């Protein structure tokens, strides 16, 4: 018997590329913990963060998403993203953390796991 609670969905092992607010809202509704990486292709620090984000997707219970701020300017604006990289953490459907700038894998893993 299937239920539509967030806990039933296993987090994907690779980052999900988000296109638009509806897709992000759906992802946040589908998973207990979601880490959204707001990035830009031209952003050097974003490129440094990419392997960390991919590792967190593979090794934690959080769903990891990537949001290209150039392609999704309205979505980035809706979340108050003024600089990239910005990571927004959702738990239980609510935004619980916002981290601006490159963070180390250990710090991000601890933060994500504190909500899983």
UniProtKB/TrEMBL annotation:
Annotated site, Contributes to redox potential value, chain positions: 44-45
NCBIfam families: thioredoxin
Domain Thioredoxin stretches: 1-116
Record carries keyword Transport: yes
Highest rank taxon of the organism: Archaea
TM regions (residue ranges): none
Annotated catalytic residues: 43, 46
Residues marked Deprotonates C-terminal active site Cys (site): 37
Annotated source species: Halovenus salina
Record has Transport as a keyword: yes
Disulfide bridges in this chain: 43-46
Start and end residues of each stretch annotated as Disordered: 1-22
Comp. bias (Low complexity): 1-10
PROSITE patterns: THIOREDOXIN_1 (PS00194), THIOREDOXIN_2 (PS51352)
A Pfam entry, by short name: Thioredoxin
Keywords, alphabetical: Disulfide bond, Electron transport, Redox-active center, Transport
Name listed for the protein in its UniProt record: Thioredoxin
């Amino acid at each position: 018997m299937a239920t539509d609670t967030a806990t039933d969905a296993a987090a994907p092992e690779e980052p999900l590329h988000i296109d638009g607010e509806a897709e992000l809202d759906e992802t946040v509704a589908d998973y207990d913990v979601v880490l959204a990486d707001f990035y830009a292709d031209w952003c050097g620090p974003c490129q440094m963060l990419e392997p960390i984000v991919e590792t967190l997707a593979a090794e934690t219970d959080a769903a990891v998403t990537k949001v290209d701020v150039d392609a999704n300017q309205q979505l980035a604006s809706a979340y108050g993203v003024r600089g990239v990289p910005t990571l927004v953490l959702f738990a239980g459907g609510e935004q619980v953390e916002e981290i601006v700038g490159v963070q180390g894998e250990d710090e991000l893993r601890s933060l994500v796991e504190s909500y899983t």
